[in-house]
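Table S2 (text version). Query chain:
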Amino acid sequence: MSEKMTKGLEVCDLSFRYRTDDVLNHLSFQSAGGRAIGVLGANGAGKSTLFKLMLGLLPLQQGTILVNDTPIGDLSVRERAREMAYIPQVQPGSFQFSVFDIVLMGTTASFGLLAQPGKKEKEQTEAALRLLQIERFRDRPFDQLSGGEQQLVLIARAVAQDAPILIMDEPCASLDYGNQIRVLEEIRSLADRGYLVLFSTHNPQHVFLYADDVLLISGHTARAFGAPYDVLSESLLSHVYGVPIRLEESARTGEVTVMPDFPKIRNSSV
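Corresponding structure-token output:
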């Protein structure tokens, strides 16, 4: 696949409520292509709502979302599919399709109703399989793969869609440690190739290891946005997650490890 070039994404003064319950309130951030943004927040913070608004699955109530300087509401469904691809969490169930067919489905996102994939789309599918290094699975039934392998197939499907912005809803949920690292490595690789990747996670360590920027949603808004090392602190993470958290920086590498502050946790429970 060719490297992606995009002017990026701008979210400005975004607010949303379900009936009388505020979910997002005056949330703003922006980013260019070639970056990975980790989206953090406690359960119910509004991460999934933000993604649904970006994808057009929920109507905008207040604020603007610009993709390559174009308001999201001005894009048709097919135009939106050319700009953004969505990678959901792997769900239990039986997909009776081969890996090749699952990835090929990504190429049809901007098709007309009766259009069929042809040579170009099959070449895009093969290229996406190579990029994610899962060519060996091409003829395997999707439902016979492990959870981590299935997640890589869904990422390949989004890559085959050929959209410059990738939105991933908790891509590491329910994966074992090894598969989490494999998926996160692919996220990093895609950002390095020019994609703008937004991925939500419940693990702050993921953003320190793999994200260029972190969007921390708390109190219905962007509590912090920027490089994780610059904007995340022990006090902020402790407040958001409701438990004492300690950040330890390696003197040798400068890398940060996120840890529960056990002495404070255990003393507070005495």
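Notes on Table S2: Residues 9-227 form a domain with the Rossmann fold fold (CATH 3.40.50.300). The chain has a mean pLDDT of 90.
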